[in-house]
Fold this protein.
Amino acid sequence: MKWHDGKPMTSADVMFSVNDFLMKQQPRHRNLMSHVAKVEAPDDTTVIFTLKEPFEAFIRGFSFYSMPIIPKHIYEGTDYTTNEANEKPIGTGPYKFVEWKRGSYIKLVKNEDYYLQGKPHIDELYYHVIPDGASHAVAYETGQVAVLPGGSVENFDIPRLSELPNTCTTQKGWEYFSPLSCMWLNNRKPLLDNVKFRQAIMYALDRECAKDVLWNGYGKVATGPISSTIAFYFDTGSSYPHDPAKAEALLKEIGYDGKPLRLLPLPYGETWQRWPEAVKQNLSEVGIPVEIESTDVAGWNQKTSQWDYDLAFTYLYQNGDPAIGVGRNYKTSQISKGNPFNNVEGYSNPEIDKLFDDAAVAFPAAKRQKLYDKVQAKLRQDVPVAWLLELGGSRRSTTATWRTWSRPPPVCPTPCAMPGSRSAANAKSGHELALLSA
């Protein structure tokens, strides 16, 4: 295997990446490596990781998202944050970086030295940068782009776009990330520090309506902290069906006086802007007034990471294993200002801390399952956050859409192959493919 500049990729690159670069640049990697006793490279094509104890989640950490391998000869001895390769990346994948015209497009070309012989099928790829969200669907309709990744158009545009000639759609491809949407409930604040008040919020929310009306039926109502698409999910059904009467009874029990709550939307498109309005209506129906405080992405990051909110929309990647992507949102050790994706709600429970720690290293998997069953049961009872939907995709929609051009319209079921696969299979030498950068 070779880097895009022709240099061989060896175990030295792996050692540099896991022991140096990623330890300095990525918190997820530091968490994984805390379970590693040593890393050895006996030759150029072998790397041996020796664990301190059984840690099943480690194998799920070998993803591009958690453990990308970096070219040692490009980064060693440099300032990692300012290295020019950050804007002109050198990897080992099927396509090589050629040009980034800011605000317009990113051009990639076929890697002739790709380790899978005969691939890729397409000679050039263009990622078009279209900042205006309303123009994404138009770009697909007019043929400017041929692939829409999940998240690049509003979900209410998907049914119309999927009817266009030569078009396929799929909700597959997000299983590792398994994004789960929720509302942070600031457990530090009066009222929200009361479990019965948090439970009342859950009963007040009509999540089925949100799925059907706001998300056009895409996704699935979440039942707790772990998505049903990753390992160790425990299915008890919905613990909190829409029950306004139950919510009102809980509010009466705690003597709620009608104090309003501030709600921070997620600034990721029209669907995310509509959702807070629906939540505001749900809560007002049980007597909880809500003030919506809209902001941009930078403002959302600032407010959530500094805990300046009462309720705040978010979605979180689960990263294949609860030990990698779930525990970070509920463990006391993960409460730290400045990060909008850790334990932002401020929930702290020594019992949950121990269960997460024990479950991460338990063996075999059946023992881990029993511990995660307890985690899920306890968190569902405590409601540290308000779980909303398993999105199945990212940001605005759960569905990727793409169009084939080189043959007559195929018979295409939904869902079908992974995004781009039919386009690649149908393309011939010399063809190029345009994608939208979500």
About this structure: The chain has three domains: 11-86, 95-174+400-436, 180-390.
